[in-house]
Specification:
The chain has one domain (6-103): Rieske [2Fe-2S] iron-sulphur domain (Rieske Iron-sulfur Protein), CATH 2.102.10. It is mostly beta strands. It has strands at residues 6-11, 20-25, 28-35, 38-43, 57-59, 62-64, 71-73, 90-91, 93-96, 99-103. 0% of the residues lie in helices and 43% in strands. The structure holds FE2/S2 (inorganic) cluster. The site of FE2/S2 (inorganic) cluster (FES) has 10 residues, from loops. FE2/S2 (inorganic) cluster binds at residues 46, 48-49, 51, 65, 67-68, 70, 83-84.
Length: 107
């Protein structure tokens, strides 16, 4: 845990390129993904149906849903293929002393 709203969610070793981690913070699930060395944090739930994107796979800088195949940009959460039409949320990440921190935004 870190002050000023940043939450420690992983150690860098847990997220080598191509790896994902799902974290639950106060009942909300987030997905961390290392796409080609860049770490992103997005909502774990697909915007199409309530399916965990953790069950999908990283494809370039997108996460592909395992159920109907929509890909979402890990950079901005936008859906790139049907059937999903709504974006997923993305969250700021920072890395300090090999620990990964997520900024949980409140709506
Ligand atoms: S549940 Fe993800 S694309 Fe349908």
């Amino acid at each position: 845990m870190m002050a000023d709203g940043w939450l420690e969610v992983a150690h860098r070793d847990e997220l080598q390129p191509g790896m994902m981690k799902r974290v639950d913070i106060a009942g909300q699930r987030y997905l961390l993904a290392n796409a080609g060395g860049q770490i992103y944090a997005v909502d774990d739930l697909c915007s199409h149906e309530e399916v965990s994107l953790y069950l999908g796979c990283i494809d370039g800088d997108t996460i592909k849903c395992s159920l109907h195949g929509s890909r979402f940009s890990l950079k901005n959460g936008e859906p790139l293929d049907p059937p999903a039409t709504e974006p997923i949320k993305t969250y700021p990440i920072k890395i300090s002393s090999d620990h990964i921190y997520l900024m949980k935004k409140t709506a």
